[in-house]
Amino acid sequence: MPVQRKIRVLIVDDSAIVRKILTDALASEPDLEVVGTAPDPYVARDKILALNPDVLTLDIEMPRMDGLTFLRKLMLTRPLPTIMISSLCQSSCRAAVQALEYGAVEVLAKPDGPYSVGELRNTLASKIRAAAGARLKRSNRADEPPRPRLANNLTHLPPEAVIAIGASTGGTEAIASILKVLPADTPPLLIVQHIPAQFSRAFALRLNEMCAFEVKEAADGDELRQGRALIAPGDYHMLLRKSGGRYVAQVSAGERLCYQRPSVDMLFFSVAEAAGPNAIGVLLTGMGTDGANGLLKMREAGARTVAQDEATCVVFGMPRAAIALGAAEEVHPLYAMPQAILAARGRRTHASSAHSI
Q1: Among 84, 133, 167, 240, who pairs with 274 as Cys (CB 3.0-4.6 Å)?
Q2: Catalytic site residue from 59, 222, 290, 309
Q3: Residue 262, preceding peptide bond in cis (omega within 30° of 0)
């Protein structure tokens, strides 16, 4: 039986200490190999050509050229799966979220103490594996033409409708592409994106700037209303609850589910219970299985359920798992998702098995 080739990783960071921490964090992983390190983008450019890595980890704040500028150049000339390693200051968090727009696959917090080093060790290897198998973002893709914002009169959803969206790897841009074309009177949205705690607020702020409705990081007790989207805070679960005849978000800690907090499954389970047939569940790109069982529970409760197709996913893991379970009534490419969501309640709730358009 042939030996599987290791995933080759190049680490780019101006701090020798961080380069060693990241290298040590991957040293015990049998399927990963750190083939080199670089203190800045100029050295990294030469090592990319010489070493041909599969995945790059990239710092944002570096001398001579910042990581965001280097990422933009890299994605134009030699696209490479990239994980951004960012400090936690406000400007770096904003830049890290912007890096996802430029084509980075994931963002992680730079270690700043013994505890954070342990957290990084638990997540870095899995993120690198996901990145190695990711479909990189391509600009001006023929299958993703520019889309105007959908007209309000296309909305067929009743006032009590709730839209729940879950995503992981590649999800920040998938979510943005959907939300920015939805109309101002879109029904309330609850969104779980697997993202480190320090970056979820910057992600919500970025979405709020590009959407026709309010987008905010959820706080416990936030009321759901038309024209508002709530983003689960990183490292907290977000659930839907009914309180006095109205929907509210419940934000809490609690155990991880599918190794995740926030968990898409946790959100979907709560939406199935609280909203039942008034809900629409949407499962987007991501590694693993989080959300598959929850989407099935939503469908069994009478909700409409939609999954992203393989061709437009960065990583097809989560939608694939949901489709295999029969949880998704429909499977759509990403560019068709906004219209599919808005049209969902205009169809009969006992629609037959999943199909693709």
Answers
A1: 240
A2: 290
A3: yes
Domain count, the chain: 2
Q: Are residues 93 and 215 in the same domain?
A: no
- Both tokens of 83, joined, read 């994980």
Note whether 112 and 25 are same-domain residues: yes
pTM of the model: 0.88
User: What is the spatial distance between Cα 296 and Cα 279, in angstroms, rounded to a whole number?
Assistant: 13
Q: Name which of 206, 202, 259 is nearest 233 in CA terms.
A: 202
How far, in Å, CA of 163 to CA of 187, rounded? Answer: 7
DSSP state of 37: E
Residues 310 and 227 in one domain: yes
Q: What is the pLDDT of residues 4-56, one digit of tens each?
A: 789 999 999 999 999 999 999 999 999 999 999 999 999 999 999 999 999 99
Active-site annotation holds for 290: yes
Q: Note whether 120 and 171 are same-domain residues.
A: no
* Contact (Cβ atoms closer than 8 angstroms) between residue 71 and residue 48: no
What whole-number distance in Å separates Cα of residue 216 and Cα of residue 204? Answer: 5
Same domain? For 249 and 210 the reply is yes
What confidence tens digit (pLDDT) does each residue in 122-136 have? 789 999 999 999 988
Q: Domain limits at 165?
A: 152-345
Shared-domain flag, residues 16 and 106: yes
Question: Is 220 among the residues known to form the active site?
Answer: no
Q: Which of 86, 168, 200, 263 does the annotation list as catalytic? A: 168
Q: For the chain, state the CA radius of gyration.
A: 20
Kindly state whether residues 18 and 105 are assigned to the same domain: yes
